[in-house]
Every structure is written in C-alpha cells, then in structure tokens.
Design brief:
Layout lengths: L16 H5 L1 H4 L1 H6 L2 E4 L4 E4 L2 H9 L3 E2 L4 H7 L7 H11 L9 H12 L2 H5 L2 H13 L6 E3 H6 L1 H11 L6 H15 L8 H25 L5 H7 L1 E2 L2 E2 L2 H14 L2 H15 L2 H8 L5 H12 L4 E6 L3 E3 L2 E3 L4 E5 H4 L34 H18 L4 E2 L19 E3 L2
Parallel strand pairs: 2-10
Antiparallel strand pairs: 1-2, 3-7, 4-12, 5-6, 7-10, 8-9, 11-12
This protein binds protoporphyrin IX containing FE.
Length: 411
C-alpha cells in the first residue's frame, strides 16, 4: 500500500497481511511522516522512527510493566478465573515486565546464572547439535528449515542448559506455543487467554518439580545456578525462580528460532551476500548484527505511559499503550545508510534488534552463539540451497517476526 496525502494514515493496520509479510515496507512512509502515530484501531501509539524508538525506550515515563495494571484493571473482580489470574501473576514476575528498582535487583540475580563464560562453553555442543540435525536432512528434495533446524537448536540447547530431560522438549514446545500469542502480542487472537492459562499452568507445575529436584541435588545447570544466585542475603524466591525459568524457556526458544529462519530467508534473497558468507569472506560477528537489523525476530516491544506528557510532538495520556516497532526503526534511513540493503560487512552495531536501554536482551550472547553457528552451517551444508516455490506464512503477531515454516530445496 502506498500512503499519500490523499490516502491518509488512518487506513494503516499493523496486523494487515501486507504489514505481516513486509512490515518495513508497509510502514516506511508512516515512519517518515508520522513517526509517533495514534492507531485508533488498537487504541495505541505506534512509534516507528529510530530516533523516537530509542527515545521511548530510554524514557522512564514509559513503563515496561503492562501486566500489573492489567491484573488490577481486568482481573481483580470476583468472576475472574483463578487459573487466568495465576498465569498473569507468573508473567508479572518476568524480568522483562519489571520496573526499577525491582528490575535491577532481579536482573542482577539472573545475570549470575547467565554469564558470558557459561554461554561460551556451549560452543562445541551447539556445533555438534547443528551438524547432527543437518546430517539428517537428505541431500536432495524439500525440507522445512523451521521444523528441522531453526526450532530444535535453541530448544534443545535451552532444555540442556536448564537441566530438563530432552524427551520433555516436545511438551515444552507445545506449552511455549500456547503462551506465545499473549506474550507476543497477537492482537486479534481471541483464544490468547485460554492458551496462556493452559501453557503457563503446565510450565509452572513442571518447573516446580524440577526446582525441588535441583534444590536437593544441585548440578551444573541454569536452574541450580538460579537457585544459588545471591546478592548479600538476597536470593530468588520460589515464585521468582518459577517465573524466571518460564521466561528463559520462552525467551531462549522462539526468538532465536525465528532469527535463524529469517536470516536464511534474507540470505537466499541476497545471493551476493550469501556467497560472501559461504566463502567465509565476512566477519560473522558483523554479519549477525546486520541480519538482526535487517529482519530480526523482535518486531515490536510494548510500553505503557505512566503519566500524561508530550512525546514527539504528540500528547500521550497516562495508561495509553505504545508499540515501539524495532524492526521498522532498524530500517530508518536517518539512522542507516541504504537501510533496505543487506550488507553483511556493515557492522551495524547501533541496531535495536535486541532492544535498547535497561531491558536490553539478557540472552543476546546465547542467541548470537547459536545463530552464529547454525546459519553458516546451514548454507555450507547445501551449496545449491534455494527457496521452495511456496507462499511464506508469517505468524500473525505484532511482537514477533517469524515464519510458521520455511520450505527449502536442499539440492
Ligand atoms: C535473536 C534472539 C533474540 C532476540 C531478537 C531478543 C530480543 C529481545 C528484546 C527486544 C528484549 C527487550 C524487551 C523489551 O525491552 O521490552 C529482550 C529481553 C530479554 N531477552 Fe531476549 N531476545 C533473543 C533471545 C533471547 C534468549 C536466547 C534469551 C535467553 C534466555 C533471552 C532472554 C531475554 C531476557 C531475560 C530479557 C529481559 C531483559 C530485561 O528485561 O532486563 N532472549 N530480548
């Protein structure tokens, strides 16, 4: 859709099929002419420029906590299903929804379990896992990259890191898929509360048992490290441990799977860049940041206004919701030269694909490690790799940019 003065922005629908298939193109004119836009359909502000997105994520008048206000407003009545309330209470313990000073305290404790050296030691395991999964795919014919490689790599690694038996992985995928619509802002999905109730209930029961087990018999894994994390006398409570386990599982799984699949798609659409990567002619560190900038999996993060104030020349009212569109900001020509070009040697360190400010992704080193191994292995394993002639099916989510499936032809 092209937007002109005669065809104003009120027609914008951030969940329209064109917006899902190519959000960066669909919202490019909006970013230029109305970077802080009131979306009457979803009664929310949509922030699309790099300047305004980074300003919003730095601005303490925008709150990350949209769960407590929701519980107070919508789930405090006598008719509330206790299971729904419980699922939201677990979510309210997620680091990503916490406000200062509770956020810093929790982040400090969680970081102790998630240190760069503990991530770096996973390298050889990630390498062998990717190689095994790729070896199972026949040299010729079609396969779904999402199902065969992109999903299992982060999900097996996260299960192993947490000390979860690998046979429970299938359950985990199912439960996180149930939680995903609500957490990933599936604006139009009426079943999102049902899904989170079932998925979260199962995850909580499962993790409660596992935490009890590792309290008695600690091992070298993330759950044991979370149990023993302490700052003076401060430790994580049982509820915080459960919330953090569910967040790590969710954060460590869907996002990286989408990152791997989006990146392979982008490379197949840019054969010159693919050739550079395949021939080891690019620095993988730079390449990963550029792939995240170009089409990263975190499309939007949400904030709530704490008070009435002026932002970007618009009057924001207390309690209003703000969609900060990271993936559209990452293609802002005012921040990146020729932003719609994929240039693996760009070294785009300023992208905001992992967020920006105090809530910057805690799992970034793990995501970089996994994707930095999986992506080159995939394209090197199949020298003739190409897209299968099938329509791409993007997930109907505002928060996440990800494919349901990505069929490729191996050779
Ligand atoms: C390519 C993969 C990933 C992307 C694009 C991504 C993106 C993001 C973004 C945008 C945020 C900020 C959210 C906000 O400001 O509201 C975030 C936070 C977070 N991510 Fe990731 N993430 C990825 C992988 C991971 C992994 C593997 C983990 C591991 C468990 C993880 C754990 C977290 C946690 C715990 C936070 C909350 C940090 C805080 O609030 O202080 N993420 N992530």
């Amino acid at each position: 859709m092209s937007i002109t003065e005669t065809e104003p922005f009120f027609k914008i629908n951030v969940m329209a099929p064109e917006a899902l298939s190519d959000p960066q193109a669909y919202l490019a004119e909006l970013r230029e002419y109305e970077p802080v836009f009131w979306d009457a359909r979803y009664r929310s502000w949509v922030v699309t420029s790099y300047r305004h997105a980074t300003a919003a994520l730095r601005d303490e008048r925008f709150s990350s906590d949209r769960i407590e206000p929701y519980i107070r407003k919508k789930l405090s009545g006598p008719d509330t299903d206790p299971l729904v309330l419980h699922a939201f209470e677990v979510l309210s313990g997620w680091l990503v929804f916490k406000e200062e000073p509770a956020h810093m305290r929790l982040r400090g404790l969680c970081s102790q379990a998630f240190t760069p050296p503990s991530i770096a030691q996973l390298r050889s395991r990630v390498e062998s896992l990717c190689a095994e999964l790729l070896a199972d795919i026949p040299d010729v014919g079609e396969f779904d990259l999402v199902q065969k490689v992109a999903t299992p790599v982060p999900s097996i690694i996260m299960a192993e890191m947490m000390g979860v038996p690998v046979e429970d992985r299938v359950n985990f995928e199912h439960w996180t898929a149930q939680v995903a619509p609500l957490v990933s802002t599936a604006l139009d999905d009426p079943t999102r509360h049902e899904g989170i109730t079932q998925g979260m209930g199962s995850l909580v029961t499962y993790f409660r048992g596992l935490i009890e087990h590792y309290r008695k018999a600690p091992e070298d894994n993330l759950i044991s490290a979370l149990i023993s994390a302490r700052d003076d006398d401060d430790i994580l409570s049982e509820a915080e441990l459960i919330a953090t386990c569910t967040l790590f599982l969710f954060g460590g799984h869907e996002t990286t799977a989408n990152f791997i699949a989006n990146s392979v798609l982008a490379l197949l659409r840019h054969p010159d860049q693919l050739a550079l990567l395949r021939d080891d002619k690019v620095d993988m560190k730079n390449a990963l940041e550029e792939l995240l900038r170009f089409d990263g999996p975190a499309k939007t993060v949400v904030r709530l206004a704490r008070e009435d104030f002026d932002f970007g020349g618009r009057q924001i009212k207390q309690g209003q919701r703000v969609f900060v569109m990271l993936s559209v900001a990452n293609r802002d020509p005012k921040a990146f030269e020729d932003p719609n070009d994929l240039r693996l040697d760009r070294g785009s360190v300023r992208h905001i694909g992992f967020g920006f400010g105090g809530h910057f992704c805690l799992g970034a080193p793990l995501a970089r490690l996994e994707a930095g191994i999986a992506i080159p292995q995939i394209v090197k394993r199949f020298p003739e790799l190409r897209l299968a002639p099938k329509a791409l099916k993007w997930r109907v989510l505002l928060g996440v940019r990800g494919l349901r499936e990505l069929y490729l032809i191996a050779g």
